[in-house]
Amino acid sequence: MNSLIKILPLAAMISLAACATKSPEPESPALKDAFEGKFLLGAALNLDQITGKDSLGAEVARRHFNSIVAENVMKCEEIHPERDRYDWTAADAFVKFGEENGQHMVGHCLIWHSQCAPWFFVDENGDQVSADTLKQRMRDHIHAVVGRYKGKIKGWDVVNESIVEDGSYRKSKFYEILGDEFIPLAFEYAHEADPDAELYLNDYGMNVAGRRDAYVRLARSLKERGLRIDAIGMQGHMGMDYPDLSEFEASIDSFASTGCKVMITEFDVSALPSPHWGANISDTEAYRKEMNPYPEALPDSAMQAWSARMDSLFTLFDKHSDDITRVTVWGISDKGSWKNDFPMRGRTDYPLLFDRDYKMKPFLEKYLTAASK
Asked: Which SS3 state, helix, strand or coil, does residue 137 take?
């Protein structure tokens, strides 16, 4: 060692000494730390992130989010594609990801009219099943899924998108065959399968008065029947001009008045013009250009406006953090958001907290700064 020191250049020796004594750079706060003590910060994971194919997305999920939900792999058509066959592969991988990273896991979703396996409502002849048969299929499905992940999944979106804007029930096959009784039955079956799991209602457009009032009545009705319901999920698919924040805040207050907690779910904010419809308007080239103004990148002025909108929303969530227990963004990065190609192919959107290079959006810096103090 002494001979080595003699032949080392002075600069190299200084460098070695510095490396030996220098403390490692402190790691910047994770985004979840910025909201610690207020609400869980969640993200929906797609299959590539769950399996590690999207390694950058998986790393962002591990580092910055303390709650996760599967974007698709627990939906009926994915997990129960045939009457007598379940495919647990992707859902098991999701749960393994959450367990390895100590994350609060949410199951999405047990009963939903969309992405429900086609066999669910028909018999072997293709005829619609009876009420008794559908009840049994619901119970079997819920018991199988919830039971497999008992004690691991902390809460379930039990019924998703069951009420329309005017407050009436969506005319789904569940409603057509069972009437509104399908909702309390789903909650009953879920509680049977895992008595310790939290149970949620979830829907979009929850700022709309008709839907809001209907969910208040529904939550109170479930409680009056002695059924467990822990929270109402307010899907946050938003834009620059919708929803009106005063209406959204009124819904937070109304849902909290039922004794349920509130969760902001499926949160993303489109930076693009809101779609408008007319006869064949979506087929016109002019309309396509109008609806897809930033195909390459979001200009600074648009990013500043979007950031201000996001900041106002997080300020609202912070204000109501006594009632809001979780805020879950619907995806990790802009690149993987479902808002791309919606409502037309080729549309490029920028709705999430991390950009296409998995870099955090600048508006979040103030939250990280506060967390680091």
From this structure: helix
CA nearest neighbour of 219 among 179, 248, 262, 176: 262
Close Cβ partners of 150 (under 8 Å, ≥ 6 residues apart): 193, 194, 196, 197
pLDDT tens digits, one per residue of 152-187? 999 999 999 999 999 999 999 999 999 999 999 999
- What does the pLDDT read at residue 278? 54
- Identify the active-site residue in 161, 176, 224, 247: 161
| Element holding 134 (H helix, E strand) | helix 131-148
Cβ atoms 129, 123 nearer than 8 A = yes
DSSP 295: S
Among candidates 225, 243, 238, 130, which has minimal Cα distance to 186? 225
DSSP line for 78-112:
HH--BTTB---HHHHHHHHHHHHTT-EEEEEEEEE
Where do the H-state alpha helices sit in 172-226? 173-178, 182-193, 209-224
CA distance 200 to 156: 6
Q: Which of 306, 303, 292, 371 is nearest to 339 (CA)?
A: 292
Q: Which of 181, 249, 266, 365 is catalytic?
A: 266
Distance in Å from the first CA to the final CA of the chain: 44
Q: pTM to 2 decimals?
A: 0.90
Distance from C-alpha of 111 to C-alpha of 293, rounded to nearest angstrom: 37
- The beta strand positions in the chain, using DSSP E, are 40-45, 67-70, 104-112, 155-160, 198-203, 231-238, 261-269, 324-329
Higher pLDDT, 277 or 308: 308
- SS3 of the chain: helix, strand, coil, percent, to 5: 45, 15, 40
Q: Give me the residue label for tokens 């709650």.
A: 67
> What is d(CA 251, CA 158) in angstroms, rounded to the nearest whole number?
20
Token representation of residue 176: 């057509």
Of the candidates 97, 27, 112, 28, which has an alpha carbon nearest to the alpha carbon of residue 67?
A: 97
77 is known as an active-site residue: no
* Residue 161: active-site member: yes
Instruction: Report d(CA 296, CA 367) in Å as an integer.
Output: 28
- Collapsing DSSP to helix, strand or coil, 328 comes out as strand
